[in-house]
Amino acid sequence: MRILLAEDDQTIADHTRTKLELEGFIVDHRTTGPDVWAEGETGDYGAIILDLGLPGMDGLSILKRWRATGVETPILVLTARGSWMERVDGFDAGADDYLPKPFRSEELIARLKALLRRAGGRSRTTAAAGGGFVLDESTRRVTYDERPIELTPLEFRLLTMLIAEPNRVFDPLEIARQVQGRDDDAGKNAVEAMVARIRRKTHPSAIATRRGFGYTLAGEGA
């Protein structure tokens, strides 16, 4: 099983990774907030170990964004800050468990395994559909009008946003923030390019443009 380890302290990360691999886990390690955020949304992980003190984007913000976009992966939060208010903030944001530093690797592994057991009993809806698209979030497979298409991770994330709220028109800068973690002109241009690529792979009208407002699924929005 693949685990995402989000930890910028290399000593802690190396020790934790070694212990996890001895237990049979496959560990992907990321050290910066933006990398962790992107990987957690696009990667297929059994669980995520998330340090709150990441550079570039703090772990609590990442956690809130994941849960807001429908990421249901079990998340074990690590932090050097162990106050009860921070634990409450973490659980309110969507954490499944909380382990303050310093910790023993045996406890981390025990908590991780408990999370995975609980997650095994969850019933998850992995398919989403709208505007002729069908997305399977567990396999990352996409069809349009019953025809399979290949999307990049960013294109997949953009389409997931549109399908999640089919009656909403999304401003390009908002899409850039959610898909890329940026809200500048370069991010807006990248969104326009992604929409154009999706249209080429499907149909020119698959994603509609509401001039002056943004994008929505064809036939949806106002």
Description:
- There is one protein chain.
- This protein has eight helices and eleven strands.
- It is α/β, with parallel strands linked by helices.
- It has two domains: 119 residues, Rossmann fold (3-Layer(aba) Sandwich), CATH 3.40.50; 91 residues, Winged helix-like DNA-binding domain superfamily/Winged helix DNA-binding domain (Arc Repressor Mutant, subunit A), CATH 1.10.10.10.
- The protein has a five-stranded parallel β-sheet with strand order 2-1-3-4-5, with helices on both faces. It has a four-stranded antiparallel β-sheet with strand order 6-7-8-9, with helices on one face.
- Helix 6 crosses helix 7.
- The protein is elongated, with a radius of gyration of 19 Å.
Helix coverage percent: 40-55%
Query: Count of helical segments?
Result: 8
CATH topology of the largest domain: Rossmann fold
Tell me the CATH superfamily of the largest domain.
Answer: Response regulator
* Strand elements, count: 11
Global shape: elongated
Q: For this structure, what is the CATH class of the largest domain?
A: Alpha Beta
The largest pleated sheet is described as: 5 strands, parallel
* Main sheet strand line-up: 2-1-3-4-5
Total of domains: 2
Tell me the Rg in angstroms: 19 Å
Described by its quaternary structure, the protein is single chain
> Topology as H/E string?
EHEHEHEHEHEEEEHHHEE
Poorly predicted regions: none
Report the β-strand fraction as a percent range. 15-25%
What's the CATH architecture name of the largest domain? Answer: 3-Layer(aba) Sandwich
Structural class label? alpha/beta
Our measurement of the CA-to-CA distance between the termini, rounded to an integer number of angstroms, reads 44 Å
Mean pLDDT value: 85
